[in-house]
Design brief:
The chain is of the alpha+beta class. It has a domain at 37-91 and 133-179. Helices cover 61% and strands 13% of the residues. It is built from nine helices and two strands, in the order αβααααααααβ. Helix 4 (76-89) runs antiparallel to helix 7 (134-148) and helix 5 (93-106) runs antiparallel to helix 6 (111-132). The chain is globular. 13% of the residues are buried. Residues 1-14 have low confidence and may be disordered.
Length: 194
Amino acid sequence: MRSPVSRRTAARHSRGSTRFTIYLLYRAFVAARRSSRSAADVQAWAALQQALLNVNAPAFRETAREEDPLGLVASPDGWRLFLHHYARLADPKLPQLRAVADRDEAAVGDPVERARTRARLDAELRDYCTRMLLPAWRSFRVDHKRMTHDAAGFLALLRDRGFRSRQREVEKRFPWESQEVWTEYFYVTVRDDE
C-alpha cells in the first residue's frame, strides 16, 4: 500500500515536474543510564549496544524475517526483557564479517561477478546469523509473546521462578532505577528545490 505522500509525489512527477517533497516520520527509542566510571558497567553497555546493532543488521533482519526487530524492544517492558537476552546477541564477529564481505565485494570489478560475490557473501552472513544469533532471538521472541499475551506484561514473566532469578542478576547489572527509557518521534523533510 502506498502512502498519501508517495501518491502526491508520483502525481507531481507524472505532470512533468521533477521537484518533490518527502516527509518522513522517525521513531527513536532512547535508553539512558546514569554515568558510571566502572569498567564493568561500560563493557556491559557496550555489549548491549552491540546486541542492538546486530539485531538491526540487514543480514539478521532477513534471517529472522523481522521487519522491525528494534520495535519489539522499544517499550519499557520490551527493553527490560531484552536485557535478559542481549548477551547472546552481542556477538562482535557479525560487524567484522560484514566489513570483510564489503571489502571482498568492492574488490571485484566485473559487475556480473560482483553480483555473484554479493549473493554468496550475503548467504554466508545469513548462515552465520542463523547459527549464532537466531537461537537467542527465538528465545527472546518466545518470552516476548508470553509477555504481550498476558495483561500483566513483564510482571507476568516474573511469575516464573527461573525468570525471577535471572531478573535479579539483570537488576544487579542494569539497575532499573538508574535507567530512563522513552520514545521520541521526529519529522524529516526531504525537498528537491532545484
